[in-house]
Amino acid sequence: MSLIRPEARAAIWRWREVLVGAVVTALGANWALTAYGVLGWIGWPVLLAGLALLAAGLQRARVRPRSGGAGVVELDEAQLSYFLPEGGVVVPLAQVVRIEIETAPGDVLVWIFTDAAGERAFIPASAVGAERLLDALAQFPGASYNRVIEASGATGRNSFVIWQKKTSRLH
Fold this sequence. Notes:
By secondary structure, this protein is an alpha+beta fold.
């Protein structure tokens, strides 16, 4: 028997990076402002690292998690994989030219990765490991985390462009 209700445990787990960032920030601020010598100097980088953790944790925690969907998502440095019992898809991240999220009534949220050949990979946000899709965005400069948060809270049928590769045009 657990002393913490499952809902409370899920909320703590969702906000864990924010909590860790707050603790590291507080520790760094304490060292930077009150300690003398080397510990005082170490406090400033610790404070900055804590603020970075806090900011990243806030972005991640604001995306409403989904679960119970089919498939498993895996991410390594070069590719994103989505496996189903009847197959799956592998997306080389270097070939992605567009990332979008489509929502539909009934709490449906689907990530769509489009490659240079126009092939589209549809990955539901309710798949096991789908939180890794946020980690994949780190490889795409200018990806809009705010659009992900907005899509996460959408209830109707919408499409949100998260990132699109800039094309150079010659005149």
